Request: fold
Amino acid sequence: METMKLEATARTDIGSAKSRRLRVAGTVPAVVYGYRAETKHISVVPKAVIAVLGTRRGTNQLVELQIDGKPGPRCIIREVQVHPVRRTLLHVDFCEVSESRPVTINVPIEIIGRSIAEKAGGKRQQIIRNLNIRCLPQHIPDAITYDVNSIATATTVHISDLIMPEGVTALYRQNYPVVTISMAGGTADAA
Reply:
């Protein structure tokens, strides 16, 4: 998995007034935390964070922080706070990850194609659009995909029908429905 570099500056001043001053100066307050890691207070440039969020992986993108020009921890973005009116970044939480410790993360489910049943007038309803998974950081997929092109009858696709990449485990019940495809004038199987 490709890692993006993100420049950051260490900060010792914490609190709401200090955070406001950082925002006025053009940076955003942030925090880095993780398993057995000391919490670090940093500031980052909003454009750089938006560039990371704009990638296909979004918050699942691995980021290598460069704190004051020195190599820092590898992280993922755990939370982003955005101003409700201006839609500007207010705060970012980075979670430090280890290559040997699994992470729990939310990835999108992408349904590929159009089933034979849909082409004959049937309907497709995607029940869940994101899936909680557990895997090592280097195995985080862009998305979990499922191809419906060959489905000809009313069907319900369950979590157990999804093909997980190597090292990835779904954290849902295996019989949880993902997509239902119904025939024209009928309903999907309750299978």
Q: What stands out?
A: The longest strand covers residues 70-82.
